[in-house]
Amino acid sequence: MDIGVFLPIGNNGWLISKSSPQYMPTFELNKAVVQRAEAHGLDFALSMIKLRGFGGETEFWDHCLESFTLTAALAAVTERIGLYASVPVLALPPAIAARMAVTVDAIAPGRAGVNIVTGWAPAEYAQMGLWPGEEHFANRYARAAEYVTVLRQLWRTGTSDFSGDFYTMDGCVLSPRPAGGHIGVLAAGQSGTGMRFAAEHADGNFILGSGVNTPLALSGATGALAAHARASGRDVGAYALFMIIADGTDEAARAKWEDYHANADLAALGYLTDQTAADQDADGSSTARTVALPEGAVNLNMGTLVGSWENVAAMLDQVAGVPGVKGVILVFDEFVTGVENFGTRVQPLMRSRASRPGRT
Known about the structure:
By secondary structure, this protein is of the alpha/beta class. It is built from twelve helices and eleven strands. An eight-stranded parallel β-barrel has the order 1-2-3-4-7-8-9-11, surrounded by eight helices.
């Protein structure tokens, strides 16, 4: 099972809490995280894109770096780890994104990838005059499908004359092309429409785990993705997203988790609720609905593994056994210590990583 780390490109990581570690998203922080991840044999790192934060007392995600430029910088200070930049399709024309990805590939041949972000929070894009209107909720994956088609045409052949409903290329050219001829594409669709898009156009799709210490709860979502992949005739695996709250004992880890919940930044969570409610037709499995559920929103409702080093390792091994799972992408409450503890205390206990021991 591949393991990746979701880089802290936004302030305070993924905990919307007044008692969680508070920090700014500096290059030095992200460099330290990705270099430690590489040293411990992790397979990839990914940086999100967030263009407007949630506010509140913690100013959650009000301070964010840009994904492509950060990825390019990290490419220059790493040697083996895969690096994915997130592409906001509403803000970057596909031909520009294709060239930016090739530039990262030139710095780190064979290690560059992109994560497609269709955009579900209107305020992020309306502030720049880029929000297409409510129709975007219904057609965002159709737009993304055209976007990825243009990317792949340019990477594969160096030219594109694609003509669609959202993008039109007129003898568009790209050179140089990727050194290895391929740049990986990830997506994060949670609805049926999103998963069909991933199955038809991406190489992998992020699946949001759910609940606390319920590693098998994602099996329904991975099964749905696998069904869409079979229908498309493509090999598209699931990458499960989990937050790790680990310590020497279950009790110590649980105490941290309960403290984060007790000190939730309610104002920031209120902004999140408002944005996720904008899409009136979203179903319960969509990204907007999934992150807004109140019982887990303190960490965007992602699946959370709380416990001792041994128990977290055992739960990750359970995830590895779920059919269709190709990997996990992890976030931590404190990233530098979290990656270091994962590499030295958790990963060595995982059966699913026995063939790829961490390096120190």
